[in-house]
Write a structure and sequence with these properties.
This protein is mainly alpha-helical. The protein has eight helices and three strands, in the order αβαααββαααα. The protein has a three-stranded antiparallel β-sheet. α1 packs across α5.
Amino acid sequence: MSAIRLLVLGAVRQHGRAHGYQVRNDLEYWGAHEWSNAKPGSVYHALKQMAKQGLLIAHEVAPSTAGGPPRTEYEITEKGTEEYLALLRAALTSYDQKMDVLSAGIGFIVDLERSEAVALLKERVARLAAWRASVTEYYTPEDGPESLGHIGEIMNMWVHSADAGAEWTRGLIERIEGGAYTFAGEGDPFVGVLAEGEENPYATGVPDPGDLD
């Protein structure tokens, strides 16, 4: 899975309607340009592609008060919402997701109900345990990686990563079960997007042709 689809759909959904530069600005505000493939060109490309796929509706609106050509505002469709939630659930449960996909999933986890978030994270822990068990049929960490030559360091790294991932996930589950954060249906959600015209202290400031769309 690519993180960009989840990130873009999630950002548009939080706004209700947003133009491309707003989405880019949000992703830079979250630091996603540093930990994912959410560069400006890929953000604008994803918006246009998902509009063609019926996941987003593209609305042409009047020029901004600052002048310039009309912008295109995007709104998520019912099909887009279904895709978004499917991507979110997959990001939270799969043991082998890349770090950017898991990071995007954690960023939107509060869009789910608390009980579902906990269930999905417990599924992730179970999948990590199952993967570890399958690997340790052939590689036993207690024997050390040397038993397989330097190639054993590859398995050693992955087993340690699985153990660390499971430990972190169990900690997150404990915090959520303890009442941390505001999940869907519990009250006013955390506002994680920038308002129109709000300054982004983390903006890269690097121009892109898509900024004017």
